[in-house]
Amino acid sequence: MRAAVMGAGSWGTSVAKVLVDAGTDTVIWARRPELAEAINTEHVNADYLPGIALPAALTATSSAVDALLGADVVVCGVPSQSLRPNLTQWTPYIGSDASLVSLAKGIESNTLLRMSEVIAEVTGVADDRIAVLTGPNLAREIAEGQPAATVIACADEARAVTLQSAFSTRYFRPYTNTDVVGCEIGGSAKNVIALACGMASGIGFGQNTLATIITRGLAETIRLGVAVGAQIETLAGLAGIGDLVATCSSPLSRNRTFGARLGEGATMAQAQEATNGQVAEGVKSCSSVRALAERHQVPMPLTDAVHQVCHDGMSVADAVNSLLGRSTKPEIYRD
């Protein structure tokens, strides 16, 4: 099996390392030739994973065509809002039976499509060839070989099992799932909730507040997930609460870091600097997740508050007050 990882950011590079460590012949595509050269000659990605030694068997190229030709597995490792234009260029070179694996966690802004839906629409590939890799997977910890689990979701269970083998190492344990919708909703919503946790931490609130945000954020995620066809069990697992806890709790999380800077009083531009120029997916996803929720008439007050802070100029303090000022209600609500 040969894998092409399309994207050499921190997560794409970590996944490429996992694949090589699993014994999978792997090439990684880097947009910049100098980064591809550094990976090939120095076996490092100093821009996104400084201090991490990459396997000598991992090869890199700045040619998307060279990376894609002959690949049995195409791993899409670019940010969610740039997936469509990149895929449009890649599609002619993707093999007729290649599996496409999405790493991006977001909802496309103008269409409100999940990433697997974007892949299907652009490439014309059937759903049973499209998979999602998601879970509590902070890139640097994975690159360091710290034990972690993940989920590989695909409508074709047999294909998911094949991919499970390709990604399985002594430190990285994949589980399979056929609920692609649930896995993608969990991955998209958790970035928004992580921003909220970061804001709360930055403004000086403690663990009670963070636990409240995580728990109520999970409630929002489940409401939206069920409305679009997800299984509750998925959102109670690695792709849901597992990913939510990791992203909301760790200083390695770009979304949490971005939110913390906003809570400390930074501007959006200053908060971006704190993430070393890497994309905090929740900043754009908060708007698309909110719009998807509105389409399905699902209340998501935390998501709405994050959107207002990031895009409407609301202060973090005012967002907190708006949430605390909402009317009281039962914790468990049923129509």
Automatic annotation (TrEMBL):
GO biological process terms held by the UniProt record: carbohydrate metabolic process; glycerol-3-phosphate biosynthetic process; glycerol-3-phosphate catabolic process; glycerophospholipid metabolic process; phospholipid biosynthetic process
Residues binding sn-glycerol 3-phosphate: 105, 135, 190, 243, 253-255
Keyword Oxidoreductase included in the entry's annotation: yes
Alphabetically list the UniProt keywords. Answer: Cytoplasm, Lipid biosynthesis, Lipid metabolism, NAD, NADP, Nucleotide-binding, Oxidoreductase, Phospholipid biosynthesis, Phospholipid metabolism
Carries keyword Isomerase?
A: no
What's any one GO cellular component for it? cytosol
Output the superkingdom of the source species: Bacteria
Q: Which residues form the Glycerol-3-phosphate dehydrogenase NAD-dependent N-terminal domain?
A: 4-158
A Gene Ontology molecular function term for this protein is:
glycerol-3-phosphate dehydrogenase [NAD(P)+] activity
Per the record, the pathway is:
Membrane lipid metabolism; glycerophospholipid metabolism
The family database entries (InterPro entries) matched by this protein are listed as: 6-PGluconate_DH-like_C_sf (IPR008927), 6PGD_dom2 (IPR013328), G3P_DH_NAD-dep (IPR006168), G3P_DH_NAD-dep_C (IPR006109), G3P_DH_NAD-dep_N (IPR011128), NAD(P)-bd_dom_sf (IPR036291)
Cellular localisation: Cytoplasm
User: Per the record, what are the reactions this protein catalyses?
Assistant: sn-glycerol 3-phosphate + NADP(+) = dihydroxyacetone phosphate + NADPH + H(+); sn-glycerol 3-phosphate + NAD(+) = dihydroxyacetone phosphate + NADH + H(+)
Q: What is its EC number?
A: 1.1.1.94
> Where does this protein hold NAD(+)?
7-12, 139, 254
Query: Start and end of every Glycerol-3-phosphate dehydrogenase NAD-dependent C-terminal domain?
Result: 179-320
- SUPFAM superfamilies in alphabetical order: 6-phosphogluconate dehydrogenase C-terminal domain-like (SSF48179), NAD(P)-binding Rossmann-fold domains (SSF51735)
Query: What does the UniProt function comment say about this protein?
Result: Catalyzes the reduction of the glycolytic intermediate dihydroxyacetone phosphate (DHAP) to sn-glycerol 3-phosphate (G3P), the key precursor for phospholipid synthesis.
Q: Which family does the entry's similarity section mention?
A: Belongs to the NAD-dependent glycerol-3-phosphate dehydrogenase family.
Q: What is this protein called?
A: Glycerol-3-phosphate dehydrogenase [NAD(P)+]
Write down the species.
Gordonia hongkongensis
The taxonomic lineage of its organism, from the top, reads: Bacteria, Bacillati, Actinomycetota, Actinomycetes, Mycobacteriales
Gene it is expressed from: gpsA
